[in-house]
């Protein structure tokens, strides 16, 4: 964002007050803080407006492809390290289906992508996209495959460097596919296709980032700004270097020609799996692979979920009464908070004891036991409320509840409010197995 | 004017730490390894020096209690015998280092005696020529005696002993210092705690070049993002010039095999072994991208994948 002084220089300096601020400088300060919109000024010149919009634009352009509920967003990142704020738009993971596998192969690919969708800690994680690649030279299977994929609603990447075929395809199935790709060899014709179809376009095939940035400038001059960059990335080292340099140039230097989302097109080897992992952690906006085995892509999606978690907002699990093992009415009841890390740790430690138990998870807005206790979110009242809501006294007849040792101070009040006997548990989760074994009698 | 990416440089540098001793240096190991030494972000060789490739250690646990059924099935009966297990790590699985975890000393479980553990250590020392790390069972009193015995039995080998924690470091540090071994300094997912334990160790007389930091690697799906960011921040802090953070980091990624999502059967997410290996590999690769100089892994397949990625990241050697 430009500073208030930079904005002020571009304003009419009339101090007319029609924007509801007494002076243009005051208005500029509000603009710099993004508290008001430039439209509030009736006298701003079109040139100033264009200049301000340009300098106020995010360092990496936000781009969407696909349509409807399944559409995906990429770009709009502002950081190099997630701990500095957060990463916003998770890497799009997609499968490449090649038309050499026939239209049936493409259908199988689409079906596989659709099946790779899971619920995990209250979020849906899935493979987001299908890329259809033309390699046979005979467009029949390609068009057939695109038609099928398009009807399934997945965001598509159309992969052909033949502008004629690309033009025909993107017009026939206009669901805002991503077009892959313009290279120095087909540049002007492919730009034309992107312009005509209003589809986003990958530009690649440049030997250096300098050449890539010149290509993106040419595209912009021709009126195509929904771009995705594919820098050189043959090895893991090149991938990391290219993606880091592009991200830095965009975020730190506001270098517009590289201020676009990025793509990594990978194969199916073991090294490609390593590259996909690096891409998710280090700045690839889109990762496409020739093959997605279930045992790899699931952990890869978990990595993406982890890396793109907002560090200021902890992942939460749903509050409620959970079974660990197959508890019955004689099994002990324990409680903890709904911070996912706390929940998983406690759960794993109960499982270690190999004894079934009930685990009551209290809604603390994702805070850990001590933090929630200090913030007044884990209280005798909130625990009692959860006990009643989940009918704990019906599922376990012990009429006992185990309290985390760290918050034993609230035992008395909890006993009074809930009417249950309160047993002070271990201070650390790691002490749970030993403690829980003492209930076995 | 052409575009050229800005090179970033830092004033700080990760310290070099030597692991293991060959006969030339008073030990009997076949190699003497060095980690650390970089003055840039991980694998940023386009703008900084990275004199040593990150290493891959494999752990050996002396009780089946800590080995999941999936591992037992996929790694075979060899995991029932720590000595054979260690040999396999060296001869077939391509480990750089063996980490012997003496979990059976746990007084609340097997409670194996110091003498028994010591003799196991001696056997492993004889059976393999790789540099060794030895971790105790985590019970301070027991580990104090155990590590003293290990330190003496491994005199001259430049072992690394672990885990030194804020509340229990003196006896371990004394044991390491007595025979010139190194120490793994553990802290619980917190930059200030990582710094604190290093300060305590140095105040006690430990030299920084004898310390590796273990900032706790939480496995994928179980808080990996916390570890990832703590490690990145530790690395940046070290490069900015904080001498107390410049010890190379070690990340134990074998924890990936304890994650419930790895242990459950669910064909929609691949076989347990494939999922488990990838879980461990991705955990380790995230640790390496963030700044680890050394990762500990459990499964031989993981070692292959991680090694290939390290080589390709390092410049395809």
Describe the 3D structure.
The complex is a heterodimer of chains A (441) and B (317). In chain A, 41% of the residues lie in helices and 17% in strands. Chain A is built from 17 helices and 17 strands. Chain A has helices spanning 4-10, 24-32, 46-56, 102-115, 139-151, 163-172, 187-197, 209-221, 236-253, 270-281, 294-307, 340-352, 369-374, 380-389, 392-395, 411-418, 432-437; strands at 63-65, 72-74, 92-98, 117-120, 123-126, 129-133, 156-159, 178-182, 201-203, 227-229, 263-266, 286-289, 320-324, 333-337, 357-362, 400-403, 421-424. In chain A, the strands form five sheets. Chain A has an eight-stranded parallel beta sheet. A three-stranded mixed beta sheet of chain A has the order 13-15-14, sandwiched between helices. In chain A, strands 1-2 form a two-stranded antiparallel sheet. In chain A, strand 11, helix 10 (270-281) and strand 12 form a beta-alpha-beta unit. In chain A, helix 14 runs parallel beside helix 16. Chain B has one domain (17-33, 42-314): Dihydropteroate synthase-like (TIM Barrel, Alpha-Beta Barrel). The longest helix of chain B is centred in the C-terminal third of the chain and has 19 residues, at 272-290. The relative contact order of chain B is 0.15. Chains A and B meet through helix 8, helix 9, helix 10, helix 11 and helix 12 of A and helix 7, helix 9 and helix 10 of B.
